[in-house]
Amino acid sequence: MPYPNLLSPLNLGFTTLSNRVIMGSMHTNLEEQQNGFERLAAFYAERAAGGVGLIITGGVSPNTSGILAPNRVILSDHKHVTAHQLITQAVHQFSTKICMQILHAGRYGYHSKIVAPSAIQAPITPFLPHALNAEEIEQQLEDFVNCAYLAKQAGYDGVEIMGSEGYLINQFICLHTNQRSDQWGGSFANRMRFPLEVIKRIRQRLGHNFILIFRLSILDLVNQGSNFDEVITLALALQKEGVDIINSGIGWHETRVPTIAGVVPRAAFSSITARVKKHLSIPIVACNRINTPEIAEAILVNNEADMVSMARPFLADSHFVNKAKADSADTINTCIACNQACLDHIFVNKVASCLVNPRAGFETLLKFEAVSQAKKLAVVGAGPAGAMFAIYAAQRGHSVTLYEKSNRVGGQLNLAAKVPGKEEFKEFLRYINTTLQQSTVELKLLCEPSINDLAHYDEVILASGTIARELTIPGANHPKVIAYQDLIEGGPKVGDKVAIIGTGGIAFDVAAKLIATHTEAWSISQQRDYFAARWGIDYANTSSGGLCESTDNTLSDKQITMLQRKIRKPGAGLGQTTVWIHRGELKRQGVKTISRADYVAISDEGLTFSLRGEEKTLDVDAIVVCAGQLSHITYELTDFKQPVHVIGGAKKVLKLDAKNAIEEAAWLAAKI
């Protein structure tokens, strides 16, 4: 059997999980939509059908003070139970177990009624929390117990108590947020009293034939967080009180260390889980940046954990486990850790989905149903929009021919995969190529069809992408000028002094390419050690919170200046959950930014520009142009006699990215 450890059952005594894979908790924002619980039931059911052993739902609050934001889901009354039964009944059609996560946001709530152990405002919300008094703490405890009881009535197999990521329980545990002097604060024995009371009371109320998971923060990554001895003390106490599984949590939401973005190496924190595991007799779960069955299996083989939790990988591919079981890992649509359609969506109150799988979260709305009458379709351009449209349309039964003028599919995904921190895009390219090979799509590379060639098709889809906007100033063709595509592809060498025209996403990619320490050829352990040194992570957690001084002094010898015509923060169009990482790296490397620059000319002396009416010349060796893109269509649309659909960059470049292009392709493929 492939992946024998990952796919082996786990006996908890009173119940057995079919394998060691957990679909970790993530908020989808589905609950708040019209027919939200029906949509959520379909979302979870599809993952259960895909073979995952255990699902943990997104966080459900035990009371109104614990919600993350207004109108979020609460389970505090019997009237709420019926909606949750839609979820449990849908999942229990399969062998999968499902636990509901109970999450009290504490000071992280984005509303005026938030509470916390102490009245200390979080840096990520504008609200000052009310410090709970003893009577209010008692009510909070009872609300946790009541929520767990109602979860059992709703048919859940258990609950996960969210004790990490900086939410209420974590706030009680750490000095960072607990400055109390009563029985709930001060000594660590007092600070861990709240989570232990939650577990103790739930066990007393519900008995032992109910899965009880505690999400334990094993590395807070904030000052005055828990140290390793405190983590172990709490873990052992939780085990004694009857917790069945310890799920590991890494970092608070306010930490300034990346924990799940693409710059984080795969399984970067599994060694910490391994250290905790040595002290426990109950299963512990590894988490964060585990996105392939090979990585997951290695964690179990190396005895670093008993189970693995993957959240976003189940957005990317609901049948992750079944594909692994069938020894078809090459067909898994792998999470690329981009955050663009999941976390970035949640931050603007949209439904969480996935760049590589736009059906995620839209299972009841976006369906690729078999067609009653197949059409002959031509797709021009095999970038992300064209390639994914072809895959989806062929899946429905259409006869699809995919034309691509270059010798490879993927378009600018091929560039993205060569940008430091975006190497996971290689996995998406692998998925596209594998899926095309196994589909009925006829792929024609090095072929740009004429209007006459296309006349034989019922409908035509133009997905020919974009071309780079060129400079229109004197010297635009000077040898110092380099196209961003050429630089990212690894073509021309640049000197030590570089100007980048533009401060958008592509300009950030270029800067990353120029300044990064290239670690792609390193082993995973080397990448993890470098990551820890770069970001100041103490994996041993000897300090309180696991933070230490960065020991990475590798600075680029490049002198880089980014210029833009507008006045705005560099990277203004990038996702807010990752842009801070990139801005921080540019700042660390001394990259300068000039705004309100009007480009005048390029010459042997460098780049001349006007700044507030004064001309200046940057003495640079190279000028990389990232001045935007233009839609690229080589046909006159009026020449077509049949229906023509323009998608992706060929249609619109404003706010263009792969996520929007693939999403547009998917919806068209579903209805054509």
UniProtKB/TrEMBL annotation:
Keyword field: Flavoprotein, FMN, Iron, Iron-sulfur, Metal-binding, Oxidoreductase
Cofactor: [4Fe-4S] cluster; FMN
Species the sequence originates in: Paraglaciecola hydrolytica
Oxidoreductase is among the record's keywords: yes
Gene Ontology MF, one: metal ion binding
Keyword RNA-binding: no
Domain of life according to the entry: Bacteria
Residue stretches making up the NADH:flavin oxidoreductase/NADH oxidase N-terminal domain: 6-327
Designated name of the protein: NADPH-dependent 2,4-dienoyl-CoA reductase
Entry similarity comment: In the N-terminal section; belongs to the NADH:flavin oxidoreductase/NADH oxidase family.
InterPro entries: Aldolase_TIM, FAD/NAD-bd_sf, FAD/NAD-binding_dom, NADH:flavin_oxidoreductase, OxRdtase_FMN_N
FAD/NAD(P)-binding domain ranges (all copies): 376-629
Pfam families reported in the protein's UniProt record: Oxidored_FMN, Pyr_redox_2
Record's signal peptide: none
Coiled coil feature spans: none
